[in-house]
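So, could you explain this one?
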Amino acid sequence: QVQLVESGGGLVQPGGSLRLSCLASGSIFSINTWSWYRQAPGNQRELVATSTSGGSTNYVDSVKGRFTISRDNAKNTLYLQMNSLKPEDTAIYYCNRLPASRRYSWGQGTQVTVSS
C-alpha cells in the first residue's frame, strides 16, 4: 500500500524560503516520474514541478527560477525547495506520481502560507 505524506509547510514572510518533503511509502520510487501540485481556496489543483526518473525537471512558469524540485530515491522522498516566496504561492501543496492514469491516492498535503 502506497501512502503519500507531505511535510515542511508553514507560515513565512514574502521573500522567505521553505523546503517541502514528500515521503512515498511503499512505492517503486526510483523508476517513476514525481510531481508537486498546489491548490489554493477556490482554485483547481495545478501542477507546479515535475521530476522524471531520467533526471529532467519541469516547472510552471510562475515558479521558474524560485522553486527547485529534487529527489532522494534511496529514501523514497521528493523535495521542493521554495525561495523568494510570494503571497500568491499560498496553497496546500501535494505530491503524486505521473502520468495521471497511474496516480496514487492523494495525501493530505502541507499548507504553505506567505504573508507579512
In short: The chain has a mean pLDDT of 96. DSSP finds no helices and ten strands in the chain.
